[in-house]
Amino acid sequence: MENAINTLRIQNFKSIKDVTLQPRRVNLIIGPPNVGKSNILEAMSLLGGIVYEQTDKFMGSFIRYEELRHIFYNNIMTNTIKIYTEKQKVLLGVKPYDSRIIYLNVDEHTQDEFFARTKLPRVALPEQVDRSLLSNFFEETQRLRYDFSEQIQYAYSEIDESGAYKVPGSPDSVVLSTTPKNSWPIKPYLFSHNTDISKDYGYIFLAPPKGGNLISIIQSSALLRREIARMLKPSGQQLLLRMNDRSLEVIKDFDGLIISHPYSSIADTLQRIIFYLAAIESNDDAVILFEEPEAHSYPQYVSMLGQRIVESQNNQFFVATHSPYLVTEILEQMTRNDTLDTELAIFVAYYEDYQTKVRQLTNEEVRTIRNDAVDVFINMDRFTPAAPDA
């Protein structure tokens, strides 16, 4: 995989003060409720989710907040949010001498070109850059769209404290490079009821976050259509696509009479598995983010999802989950295969010193979970640092 993330560092995002991960192809994030697992995925969405944003609120489709300060560590907006990978650098912080907040997402090629031209210190060490130099950096980056060639990739925006976009001198809420949207590999997916799935964005992949082009993906994927047909067959139903009005229905033959129902009326658990399978099957060389994909799902479908995640070897996955079915299926598939064994990482999130911390399980601990049938969710304390004695 060209786009896989091998190093991820998150600083000052919500409950995360400073966390560094060494991801692999399949990454499971587990832990008790309310320790910040979803915050890891929300922080990762800053690496590219903004190009798929569908609201007037900064990252409103991907990050839960009421006021923008709520996404900063301890609600202190001078704690600049930093998301680093070996390929990208994201900064979200207060603009020097201004009340606006800057969002800056720059790929390494843009950085190389920028620093070669401006001779400024590396933004990889922002604490070494004084406020005036940082201000110049933001202003220069905003002009990159006019200076550099198409292969340069960046995203820039300015936001007020409510989350509304305020980019001076631009008709757009976000200033983007001219690279196509499918060149942004981060794909955060969030299933939502009553989503309009008839849209056509021109993507060959399911549109993050809610799959608004699901009909297009089903229409173009024979594999997905066969899978849906197999799941509907026990109930005697079939999928009907009305091409003229781009609607999806489920039909059945009742004594020679064809009866149809809207797709939205089928079981929630079936809609969910179709959504997640569409996300997996339609992507290639993507970094896919799933938050609790097992919610309201039939155990058989959860196991199916785990199997597809394992089989999708040209995508990278970050999955926050509470499901023993999903974890067990992925463990069974990957730990018994010497090749796949090294592609699995399990991260245990926990809360300590008023912040989210993460510990990656060793290969031996992962194998112990499988071999000893240890229910990792019941024995979570076994894999986190012991609390100090009172």
Automatic annotation (TrEMBL):
InterPro entries: ATPase_AAA_core, Bact_Antivir_Def_Nuclease, P-loop_NTPase. Gene3D superfamilies: P-loop containing nucleotide triphosphate hydrolases. Residues 26-327 form the ATPase AAA-type core domain. GO terms for molecular function: ATP binding; ATP hydrolysis activity. Pfam families: AAA_21. This is ATPase AAA-type core domain-containing protein. The lineage of its organism: Bacteria, Pseudomonadati, Bacteroidota, Cytophagia, Cytophagales.
